[in-house]
Predict the structure of Prolyl oligopeptidase family serine peptidase.
Amino acid sequence: MRNLSACLVLLLLISSALADGPGDNVADHVRAVPPVGIELSDVVRDELDGGLAELNKKIEQLRKSNDLKVQSLLPDVEIFSRAIRDAIAHRELFHKNDIGKARQVLAEGHARADALTNGNAPWTTQTGLVVRGFKSRIDDTVQPYGVVVPESYAFAGASEYRTDVWLHGRGERSTESLFIHERMNRVGQISPANTLVVHPYGRYSNAFKFAGEIDVLEALDHAKSQYRVDENRISIRGFSMGGAGCWQFAVHYPSQFFAATPGAGFSETPEFLKSFQGETLTPTWYEKKLWQLYDCTGYAANLFNLPTIAYSGELDIQKQAADIMEQAMGDQGLKLTHLIGPQTKHAIHPDSLKTIENKLANLAVQGRDRALTTVDFTTYTLRYNRSFWLTVDELTEHWERATVRATLSASENTIRLTVDGVRGLQLDLAAGDAPFNLRQPVQIEIVDFSTDKDSESATNRQILVGPRPESDRSWQCQIHRDGDQWKIGSRPATIRVVKRHGLQGPIDDAFMERFIIVAPSGKGLHPETDAWAKSEQDHLVREWRRQFRGDAIVKQDTEISDDDIASSHLIVFGDPASNAFLKSIQSELPITWSEDESNLMVGDKKRVDAAHHAPVMIYPNPKNPTRYVVINSGFTYREYAYLNNARQVPKLPDWAIIDIRTPADSLWPGKVVDAGFFDEAWKLK
């Protein structure tokens, strides 16, 4: 027994060494994430295949139903089928015990299909552990999430319930089947009294970023449609990778929650990778800029409006995440509540958990503060542009720090704004929230510490006369900066497209909403670039399933409809000869092919040999400028980044030129010979 125990300890140490540390810093030797699972015996494979086929027959019959309730609940059944399908097809059962778990998942899928066929849905009125599903708007795939429904939950009545969103830790083997099984059998680390706990899947192991971020929001929205969630008592919580996700939701969505409790994890990329991974970083200038998408330290001021309780084990190397946030908050005049588990490594100390729960219970009594008189907000991108009643419409320049402090003064009938790096704002106080005199216009006092080069002064103080509040005690006003003067109203539409929320780049932003891959049906201009484009398309389809657990929608260039153009970002591969859709828009793109098609034209000044170079970019679709078109790229981080969640950040900006003579690898699609951001009007800088 002693020898067996020693072997188990050694195996755990080897596993830990493989998962983190210098062994994962070699881009030429990247292990598979998720790992390759066990080979199923013919008997087991036939059993699971047979059970899956029978379940799919039942699902097909349910899809034919005209009952709206059946259709709305069908994802609650389909998640079991899709989980087992992928587990079998992609060898994602990793241990003999996982076979038994797959059997339980498959059996629950059959039970639900049978119940729904008979007009019943018992899981919708079940307390305890429940697995639910929804159809994602990104790629139409069904995605699972778990709910812990308290025994005290009343399925009839008007009571609304506090809801905690719990983000799970990193699990390279947490594929759908195993996640669903865990949510069917384990309560998890938290289960506060009289509280719904939502466990998003987050589309696997991405620290709840990109599609994982949208998954959390979609899971929460679905839970709101199924349970009586108190909108003013939703918290965001998590530990380890879930702690990282909690930090990023806290700083990017400060008005969505009444409290945040991040534990361990990471809160930014460069310093964490140095300390935790021992990695020597050599980023390009645009990678540094793009760290600002998810580095929470730059957004620390947003926690002024969100009660935050951080936790770290005293001996945990991931304590660095809260330490660096504590420093960043201190720079903003804020003091972080940081609980330390004594003599604790990577775990939540039970005494600390009790303290956290007590603090949260007290905060939940008040809930989210809707009557805020001051909003502090920082952003680097219009992807994250809102906090409570303040929305940033326009930045001076993306990826530079932009700040707003807005304060209401009821006694003076005034809103005071201090801004920097911002060119457009909306102020929107909902019914009952405007504390102003109904008979007087609201004054807007603006102090602008502008970094905009067209401004004649560093500080610009103005007073504007805004509208009066409405009789329901609501108040709305939009303002914009014209030169060095602020004006009431929105900016006149003098140019066709500008960077705005949801249309601001970089390339990875297109994969946070619905997208369709537009595959070429013809032969490309040059054999090498043709083969490269098709390989990159295959890479996107394959890695979208592996890393974001989705089935990418792929259509031929000749199949793209007006509805597709209206509803979806289009991810176009190839060149004007191979891809008919790309040919139809190429003249309206800032990077295109020369008339003789031998060169790529970057604007009107730079030429690159098209036989060995390919463009990648994101740009407003000329056929529908409210949606993106992406040329020759999937999400831009590659296999090397899978090994540590802090690496999972954008690798390319708005556009790049790739020399395909350097083969694609685990870091890049080829050699990046030029790259950059478009300006705020989507023009080449």
About this structure: Residues 42-63 form the longest helix (22 residues). The two ends are 68 Å apart (CA to CA).
